[in-house]
Request: fold
Amino acid sequence: MAKYEVVRNFTDLQDDRHIYRVGDKYPRSGRGKKERIEELSGTENALKQPLIKEVVEDQETEVKEGGK
Reply:
């Protein structure tokens, strides 16, 4: 499941006017609808700029040291 993070402060008019701040996760609970995520991550919203972005989690790599 993809995770999203807020990149610009906004008030979500479709979520009881909840205020999202930069760094918050989106949505605040549950799963977001595909159409809404596309709207908020693109420019087809009231502010005409991306408000959220997908978070890409880094996979930790184990470094194995050779015998010394």
In short: The helical segments are 34-41.
